Amino acid sequence: MLSHARIPFLCLILALFRVAIPGQGHAVPQPSEPVQAVLNSNQYDLEIAGRTLLLNEARSNSYFLLGELHGENEIPALIDALWPAMWKAGYRHIGAEISPWAAYQLEFAPVGHGPRITGLWTRRQAMNAHAVASPGTSVLWGCDMEEMQPESLIRELAALNSSNPVLQEMVQLTGKGYSRKLSPTLIELATKAGPMKDKIIGGISLRQNLLATLEIDKNRASPQTKMIAQNERELLMKQQFLAHLQHESQPGSKVLLRFGRNHLHRGFDARGISTLGNFVAEYATAHGQQAFNVGAFAAGGKETLMGETWDADERQDEPTFALLAENAKYPATLFDLRPLRPLLHGIPQEKRTPLEVNLIYWADSYDALICYKTVTPLAQE
Which residues contact 330 (CB under 8 A, 6 or more apart)? Predict the structure, then answer.
């Protein structure tokens, strides 16, 4: 394995050791002097030396994994700044937390035509990613279910099979929009639809992506099957990533993956189900390649998505986040966590403080973390 085993009672430790935001009467836990010294000497201004570090890692690795926030301007701006240089370094694709259908629409549908795409990517972001490529080249890889608008996949399949009455019934059923409670009925209808014309995007079937989406949504609806749904989704991400690699990747080309931070840990995240990042890292190793992963968190500001805006401050969520935020010297600070690993693992397990346990978790999970002191809500298109 590329990451150390997680401590079984980690979730309990974190629940008991929840750190309050500085300024609200609670002190941020302090590390030992050696840990503090490593943190001080391995933090970089993301706008200058931090960007240089990330680009050097991009050149040295075949897979660059960016565990992002959702619904702010800072990560899209970072990608805009890095992507032209990464393209020159051999990166040709961006694996994204959107469906293959949505990725295709964002990248190739003429502006003002086709359905409005709602999701984690905007059309402007997709156009910026595609700007360095030739017109017909696919840059954006959709590697997820269609979480936001499954009804659009139904409509497209129905348009391809206009004489199929079952598909037309599915269109009528979702005419006023899709809701999760419809998924069992839609699955039953889809299995009755019989042979049909399909659309293949990057080696991925539109019909199969729809069926996987409905199955995941069906299992999300019940607490008893919620974990099944989470595992199904993670498996789908891996399968679609591999399908894109097999059908669209050229020899020697590199891939940037942009997913939510929970998906790109090395090893298991605290929930125990998010293993895409570890899968990619192991895949790289199996093929004589390397992967670098960097995560981001916010210490203040707001995020917005799907018309909702929320407080982005994550300092209370993890002792490591509170500590890094207190030590960050710049508005956007990159912490290289790799030098911490030997130091932290040299501490006998029975002598580790709750903070050191949490630092080990993050230093093993990610090669680096970006602390944004303040993030700004993403403007809706």
Answer: 43, 44, 45, 46, 47, 50
Q: In the 8-state DSSP scheme, what is residue 257?
A: E
Per-residue pLDDT reduced to its tens digit, 134-160 = 988 999 999 999 999 999 999 999 999
**Rounded distance between C-alpha atoms, residue 305 and residue 297, angstroms:** 16
Say if 35 falls within a structural domain: yes
Task: Please give the tally of structural domains in the chain.
Answer: 1
pLDDT tier at 18, thresholds 50, 70, 90: very low
Q: What pTM did the predictor assign?
A: 0.90
> Are 327 and 40 spatial neighbours (Cβ–Cβ below 8 Å)?
yes
Domain that holds residue 284: 1-90+259-381
Axis crossing angle, helix 319-327 with helix 354-365, rounded to the nearest 10: 80
Q: What is the pLDDT of residues 301-339, one digit of tens each?
A: 999 988 899 999 999 999 999 999 999 999 999 999 999
Q: Which residues share a beta bridge with 96?
A: 142, 258
In a domain? residue 61:
yes
User: What is the C-alpha separation between 108 and 137, in angstroms, rounded?
Assistant: 10
For residue 67, what is the domain's CATH number?
3.40.1660.10
